[in-house]
Structures are given as C-alpha cells and as structure tokens.
Amino acid sequence: MIYRKKTVSWLKMVVLFLTFIILVGGICIGCSGPVLETRGNSVGNISNGGIAALQGEWIYYRNDNDGSKIYMVRTDGSGREKINDDVSFYINVVGDWIYYSNWDDDLKIYKIKSDGSERQKINNDFSLNVNVVDDWIYYSKGDDDLKIYKIKPDGSGRQKINDDVSSYINVVGDWIYYSNQDDYYNIYRVGTDGSGREKIHNDFSLNINVVGDWIYYSNGDDDGKIYKIKLDGSGRQKISDDVSGDINAVGDWIYYINYDDGKIYKIKADGSGRQKINDDYSYGINVVGDWIYYINHLDDKIYKVGTDGSGHEKV
After folding, report:
1. Domains of the chain by start residue, with CATH
2. Residue of 145, 114, 141, 143 whose CA lies nearest to 129
3. Is residue 239 a contact partner of residue 267, using CB atoms and an 8 Å limit?
C-alpha cells in the first residue's frame, strides 16, 4: 500500500512537471528556442508548392487526377475522401481546417473543414508561399511584388510585414526567413511583427529550408549545389556537389532533385549517405511521413514513393 501511494504521487509529479514545461516553455519541432508552435505544413513542403500535408494519421494532398482538388487519405492508404472542388496550392492543415490558395479565384486564400463543410474565403490577395503558423497566415502577396503579409484565419488583422521582393518564406519562431530578390536572392530575416530586418549572408539562395539551427539552400553561385548555414550566418558548409533544386530538409535528411538526371535523391545533412530515390523526371518534392509526393514531368500528375525508394505509384 505504501509503494502504491508513492507511485501515484510520483506519477502526479511527472504529469505536473510536463504540463508546466509545455505551458511555460513550450515545445517546437524544427526550430530553436522554447516556442509552442502549431504549423499547417513543413517549410520544405511549402517551398515546393504545398501539394501535400500530414496531420495525425491523415495525408491531405492535391489530386491532379481530379482537377487538382484536395483529397485526404489515411497513412495506410485507406479511407480516401474528396474535400473540395477548387484547384488548390499551398495546403496547410490545422485542427479541423484546411487552408489553401485557390487557383480558381486568383490564388486567394480559402479555408474549408476536413469534412468539406464551411468553405470560406479569407483574403483578396494573390497569395503565394502560404505558411499557417500559430494564429496567423503568412504569405507573399503576388500583386504587390511578393511583399510579405500576414492575416488572421478569420480574415481580420491583415498587415504588411516588409518591402522586399520575398521568395521561399519560412516562418520559424518569431522570425520569417526569405530570399530577397531585391538583393540578389540573399537570405534575410524579419520579425513576424515586421521589426528587426537583417541580412544573413551573401549567397544566391534558392529553395531555402530553415530546420533546427540551420538554413539549407541551393547555392546559385555554385551551380545550385546544396549548402547549409547557421541562423546567425556562421558555419557555412557545402553538403552536396549535385546541381540541385526543390530541396526539402526533414530531420537528418535532405531530399532534392538532381538536375543532372531529373531524379529525386536524398543525402544526410553532413553530406553522407547519398542515395537515388526514383527514376521519374520529377519536381515539387513534398515529404509527408514515410512518403515523398512529387509531380512527374512526363504527365504532370502527382506520384508518391517511399523515402527509402520503395512503393512507387501514381496518387
């Protein structure tokens, strides 16, 4: 009986401690600092068009076999359902809501529930690079030279963040990282409130992915080879000698298109373990769980393949 009381008391202390850590310190996957962050899709997926997103046991994806409408399917391949009738880009999923840019309405941002109900327009801007993070939607406004804006999910609070022509925006913690086209695609960052704009470094940077303490990118000054640099601009390193695009950094791996043959490859963040994944001429790499969703250049349809190269099929 004494042992049981001590065990219950110990478990209560563990639960209280974990609750305190979550409420006060927060948990953030893929960024630095104690921030509780809810995001609708990974930075790598959004940089590559946001054609697929993972939430729990469900994968949400753009079905190019049915007019690029959003479908959902369980990670085991069962329970496939259609969600909307819009041509959809930059898919983000938060809770019961799916956010996307609607091609049928000049890429304005819409949201719809995962059961297909309550479809709503959120803004009237031509919206690219849509990142849904915490209580805000961040995007590059195409009809304002790709300046960064943010807006609340209910359509309120719309704000302009910067005045740079901004590509590949990554919202991580309190910062937005982006390639500044006004300055030779150098990497910059600005606070999510519009303050603290600063330059990170001087490479011609495409497909930037901010993961953990590193920024991964294709270096246009070195034939598109993959580099990484720390968030403060230090520690610059080359990772791969392949001419690379559409990079998507997930955990210890970087997935990319090798432009020498157009196929998907992966390599570890330390430059080891290089491996070819598929034999299709591919683009638009999106990584969801154990799957890579991508577009096949030959028919412009979405396919998937396991991150280990197995299970290749048309979606």
Report:
1. 2-314 (2.120.10.30)
2. 141
3. yes
